[in-house]
Every structure is written in C-alpha cells, then in structure tokens.
Amino acid sequence: MNPVLIPFKIIGNFVHKFISELGGMGCFIAKSLFWMLFPPYLIQRTIKRINFIGVKTTLVIILTGSFTGMVLALQTYYALVKFGAETSLGPVVALSLIRELGPVLSALMVTGCAGSALTAEIGIMRITEQIDALDAMALNPYKYLIVPSLLAGIISLPLLNAIFVVVGVFGGYAVGVGLMSISGGTYFGGIRDFVNTKDILEGLYKSLSFGVLITWISCYKGYCAGYGAEGVSKATTQAVVLSSVTILIWDYFMTSILVT
Amino acid sequence: MIEVVDLYKSFNDQEVLKGVNLKVEKGQSLALIGGSGKGKSVLLKHIIGLTKPDRGKILIDNQDISRLRGKALKQLKERCGIVFQGGALFDSLTVFENIAFPLREKTKMKAQQIRDVVFTELARVGLSGAENKYSAEISGGMKKRVALARCLVMNPEIVLFDEPTTGLDPLISKAIHKLIRECQKSLNYTAIIVTHEIPAIFSLVDRVAMLFDGKILAIGTPEEIQASKNPVVHQFIHGELEGPISLK
Fold first, then answer.
1. pLDDT over threshold 90, residue A110
2. Are A130 and B89 an interchain contact pair (Cβ–Cβ within 8 Å)?
3. Which of B82, B85, B86 sits opposite A136 (nearest CB)?
4. Contact at CB, B88 and A137, closer than 8 angstroms
5. N or C terminus of chain A: which is more exposed, having fewer CB within 10 Å?
6. Any residues with CB less than 8 A from the CB of A260 and at least 6 apart, and which?
7. Phi, psi of B244 (to 5 degrees)
8. Does B50 contact A128 at a Cβ distance shorter than 8 Å?
9. In the sheet that B2-11 helps form, which strands lie side by side, from edge to edge?
10. How confident is the model at residue B61 (pLDDT cuts 50, 70, 90)?
C-alpha cells in the first residue's frame, strides 16, 4: 500500500469500527426494549437480578455515601466559614448530594461492583456456549438474560441513589453537628428550606438513566465478548471504562437540560 | 429429513463453508468427520438455526430454517436438540435444575411430573444420585451425560452432537458412544455427530461424511468410507502424516 494512504486507512478502520460498535449497541438496546414488552414476564429472574445488582451493592453504597457526606461537610464548612455562612452547610451538602454526587457516585459504585460482574457472567455464558444453549432450546436470550438485568438496573439505581443521599446527609450531619458544633436544627432546617421536589426529581431522572446505561453497556459487552478468558477480561474492562466515562458525559448533558 | 443445499459461510475474510451439500434421512445417524477448525461445528450451528448462512439452504422436512422467523423458527427449534462440545450446562444451576430447565420453561408440567421425568433421564444416562451437584463439581464425562439428558428430556426428533467425547478417556468415550447409540435406537431420533473418534465412530453410525476444504468430500456407509480410494479420506481416517492434507 502507498505509504501516504496508511493514515487514511487507520482513521477509516477506526471510524468503521466505532460506527459498527454504535450500531451494534443501538440494535442491542432496541431488541431488549422490544422483548421487554412481550410476555412471559420473568418476575422471579428480575428479583434475582435486583438482588445481584442492588442488594449486593448496598453495603458499598452506604460506606461511600457516608464518607462522601462527611468529607463534603468538612471541605464545605471551612470554605463557608470564610464568608460567615456556615449555617448553610446543611443545604450545600444535601443539594450537592441530591443533584450531583448521589446519582453519579452511586452509579460509579454500581459499575465497579455489579456492572463488571454482569459483564463477566454474561461473557462466560457466551464463551461456554450457555447462551447458544438457551437459543437452541428456542428460549430468547434477550428475554432471559438482558431484560431482567435492564429492569433490575432501572429499579435498583434510584433506590441505591436514595440510600447514598440519605447516608451522605447524615454523614455531613455527623461532621457538621458532631465536630464543627453547628446546631442540628440549623442543619436540617436549611435542608428543609432549600431542597425542593425539583432537586429530588433531577437526581431521580439521572439515576434512572444511569441504571439503563450501566446495564445496557455491561450486558452488551458481555453478550459480545470475544473468545476465551482474554475475551471476557477485555470485555469486563471495556464495560467498566465505557460505563464510567458515559456516566460522566451523560451527567453533564442531563444537568444542562434539567437545570435550564 | 435434513438437507443442506449449497451452503456458504465466511467469517470476516475467512471462507469456512464453500458449498456444503448434505442429506440425512429421518431416523438415520451420520458422523461428520474432518480436520479441526474446518467448519464442522459451524455446520451444526447452521442446522440448528444458531448461525445464518451467507448463501444456501438448510431444509428440515422441507422448511428452510435459515429463512424462518418468529413462531415458525421457534417450533422448528423445539424439534431439535444439541449437545455442545463443553456441555454448555448452566453453571448457576444444579444437575437437576439443568435437566428440568427446558421442562419448566417450555412445558406446563407440574413440579412432581418434572421431578419424575428428570429422575428417569438421570437414570437413563447413569447419573442417579448426582442431581444436587453443580456443573463445576462433576467430571467432563458426567457433564456430557447431563447435557445429553437435558437435550433428550424434550424428546427431540433431531439431535446434534458436537464432539461428544472430546477430552474424555477411552472408557468414558466408549460409554458415551454406547449411550448415544442406545438412546438413538430407543428414541429413534435423527443424529448428526461431529467427531474425531476414528475408528470407534464407524461402528456407531449409519453413514459417515467428511468435510474438507469447506465442502463434503465424501459420504457413504462406514464400510464405504473405510474402503475409500480418495487419498484425502484415506490419509485422514488412517491418521497418516504424509499425503495431500497439509498440516500447516
């Protein structure tokens, strides 16, 4: 090949691969949403998936939520003292957690804990022909594997986000009231005055969309995993990286839409 | 009856099947032999509708499985069963649950009926007592037998075996071969067995076909294949290093 054309070939290959991947992901979610509408509705499998994605991540969410609230209160308190506004600690911590940190950090935690496990599990099922076995039994793999995971993501993420926020607010309370001597009434009174339904809904919409994104990417990467252990490990890494990056990018766009 | 007509399949730039023609009569057993990585498993996956061909037809009782969609495809798949190379058992389920899985999902049988059918199948494949074990806790030979039981539990008319004895010792291999033969005789299903077990397979099947260079090179009774003058068939079934088949 003419050396002048090599960079064009490389760029072309990259663009081609990128577009096919996007197309593959689009078809994957379209098929999953389509099969979600038709019976049989696998309620028991969905509950098992909620346990897998939601319940097993709860402890990590409680831990990260509490320390996030605590460090947020600590950092914010010293900044607010400079302006004599330390009584605003409660609303600042609560609003940061409800609108931004809660949805994003809980989604990142779920990506690390459940998203990677989901990719690895489906990837192993792919390479050991368990997905082919389902298909050969005339059972739809989307219906049995993907739809329950997607539903579990949609249900679990807002609940985990709620836990994260509540624990975070109490973490902030422990630091603000316990260590910095702000009164408990001031802390919670400020939250009551400044936090409204719109803020809570913003966090809810974000965590719902993150629930779809995480399970979509994790399931897709597992479903299309390459051959052998290397294929599964590559798929798992890609799922975690892509989910994390997508969460942060999507968060920006969601915020810009919801704020305006 | 299964009929494969002029089947072509490529993966990226690699042509795997280059015009396969094959016919298997109802109730007959056929062994599909050929070199490793030459497309035998790909052909099986086409026959059961897991892979779509680039060109050609796969007719099962005159219905082209590659063109069927929705309910018709589902009904045709329900008449077939496949025993995968590694067993493809669901590793989160026990042996009992694996065999019961298609019955629970595809039939309206009651729990007690399912239990009876599963225990009958377990006894048939010689695995009574192993029902509570997980696939990680059983040997390769046991996995293949569980896979066979899971496949037979739905009484398929066509059963495809993808290297059912690969990686097993000679005694277990012989036992699996005997089991396949007995099950085929009693249930009278049409069987296609992808295998490298030469010459053991010759006493097990009605016909043998050899896949070479993406096509069926030779097909006939085991005696005809063994007596074949074709140098490729001769070299392959006798395992000779010198001959027209390049090992590169």
1. yes
2. yes
3. B82
4. no
5. C
6. none
7. -70, -20
8. no
9. B14-24, B2-11, B55-60, B63-64
10. confident
Residue identified by tokens 């030469």 is: B198
Six-digit token pair at A58?
Answer: 């709860």
Amino acid at B4: V
Tell me whether residues B86 and A129 touch, CB distance under 8 A: yes
CB environment A10-21: b (16+ within 10 A), e (fewer): eeeeeeeeeeee
Give the closest residue to B94 by CA, choosing from B132, B48, B45.
B132
The distance of A139 to chain B (nearest Cα, Å) reads 8
Residue B245: pLDDT above 80? no
End-to-end C-alpha distance for chain A, whole angstroms: 52
Q: CB–CB of B226/B48 below 8 Å?
A: no
- Residue B31, beta-bridge partner list: B193, B208
The whole-angstrom distance between B238's CA and the closest CA on chain A is 32
Q: Position of tokens 């897709």?
A: A220
Non-local (6+) Cβ contacts of B118 within 8 A are B96, B99, B100, B103, B131, B149, B153
For B196, phi then psi, to 5°, come to -115, 5
What is the percent of chain A where pLDDT is above 70? 100
B85: CB partners within 8 A, 6+ apart: A129, B41, B162, B163, B166
Helices (H), A37-98: 43-53, 58-82, 89-96
Most distant pair of Cα atoms in chain B: their distance: 59
If we measure between CA atoms, which residue out of A180, A208, A160, A211 comes closest to residue A72? Answer: A180
Nearest-Cα distance to chain B for A138, in Å, is 5
pTM for this predicted structure? 0.86
Q: State both tokens at A64.
A: 């990260």
- Would you place residue A220 in the very low, low, confident or very high pLDDT band (cuts 50, 70, 90)? very high
Reported ipTM exceeds the 0.90 cut:
no
- A37-70: buried (b, 16+ CB within 10 Å) or exposed (e) per residue? eeeeebeebbeebbebbbeebeebbbebbbebbb
A132: phi then psi, degrees, rounded to nearest 5: -60, -40
B134: DSSP letter: B
Q: How far is CA B73 from CA A93, A97, A214, B48, in A?
A: 57, 51, 32, 10
What integer pLDDT is reported at residue B247 of this predicted model? Answer: 67
